[in-house]
Write a structure and sequence with these properties.
This protein is mainly alpha-helical and about 290 residues long. It has one domain. The protein is about 55% helix and about 0% strand. The chain is built from eleven helices and no strands. Helix 3 crosses helix 5 and helix 3 crosses helix 6. The longest helix is centred in the N-terminal third of the chain and has 37 residues.
Length: about 290
């Protein structure tokens, strides 16, 4: 019952709160009308939650119960109090998701589907779960493998999924947090400015900042990029910035048709960053 209340009330409440905050204190200027984007994104989000509930959730929880009953996974290697197993399990789930996210950028077949998330020409809380439902469906394979490796029990799985959902909405949001506060916050969690760089139309910037909850994995793997001012970021994928690219039918069929040159615009030009190609860890820019 408590879990149902959490899902039905708290997470939608966070979404609405962030959506309203974006209208008052936006981080980046909007480039497209909100209503049409919102309709498309919410339709895709509904499909994501339907597929996630029917396939991914059942696969993940089933694998979690199976591994817990048999003591399989990293968290069971050394006998520990349950609170320690939960903490380690959450950290390892987030680390393994970092690898999954990175794979979705590096493997061409996976990127075809993940690109649906990235071609949104604006970035806000409605982008949080704007994915192709096929990507969500095949991610159940990752979830099962994740449980086999980590060994997180159902409670750990539920806690992680809840925090994951809330944090996903926060760092996709277009809310301007005070810079000093966000710099402090970013030492612990992924923030809007950090993730905004991940949605840049510059390929080298998109291929950075893969973390979902914790930024530590990007620091550890040298994929963290912070020194890009939000005012200089153009959101989206250059090859898919035409109006028709973001129509609902085209979003659904896009992974199955001939792909455009992702990082070249209609004129055949690739947006360039004025930063060095080497990803550097520096202070967060405004």
């Amino acid at each position: 019952m408590e879990k149902a209340y959490l899902t039905v009330l708290i997470l939608p409440g966070i979404f609405i709160l962030l959506l309203l905050a974006e209208q008052v204190i936006p981080l980046r200027q909007r480039t497209r009308p909100l209503f049409r984007r919102l309709v498309n994104n919410l339709i895709l989000t509904a499909a994501v939650f339907l597929v996630g509930s029917l396939i991914v959730k059942n696969a993940g929880l089933g694998a979690s119960k199976w591994t817990t009953q048999r003591g399989i996974g990293i968290v069971f290697v050394v006998p520990l109090p349950r609170c320690c197993r939960i903490a380690i399990g959450i950290l390892l789930m987030d680390l393994t998701f970092y690898y999954w996210h990175r794979a979705n950028h590096r493997i061409a077949l996976l990127w075809r589907f993940h690109n649906v998330h990235h071609i949104d020409p604006d970035l806000d809380v409605s982008t949080s779960y704007r994915f192709h439902f096929v990507e969500i469906a095949y991610s159940c394979v990752f979830r099962v493998c994740q449980m086999l490796v980590v060994g997180a029990d159902p409670l750990t799985y539920a806690i992680y999924e809840t925090v994951f959902s809330a944090e996903t909405m926060l760092h996709h949001s277009n809310v301007r947090l005070p810079l000093r506060f966000e710099r402090l916050l970013n030492r612990v969690i992924v923030t809007p400015r950090m993730h905004g760089i991940h949605h840049s139309a510059v390929g080298a910037e998109t291929n950075s900042n893969y973390g979902v909850i914790f930024p530590w994995w990007d620091r550890l793997h040298r994929t963290l990029l912070l020194n890009v001012a939000q005012s200089s970021i153009r959101i989206g994928v250059p090859g898919y910035l035409e109006l028709q690219d973001n129509r609902l039918w085209n979003l659904l069929r896009m992974p199955f048709v001939r792909q455009k040159r992702y990082w070249c615009d209609a004129n055949g030009l690739s947006p360039k960053s004025n930063k060095d190609k080497t990803v550097k860890v520096t202070r967060m820019s405004a």
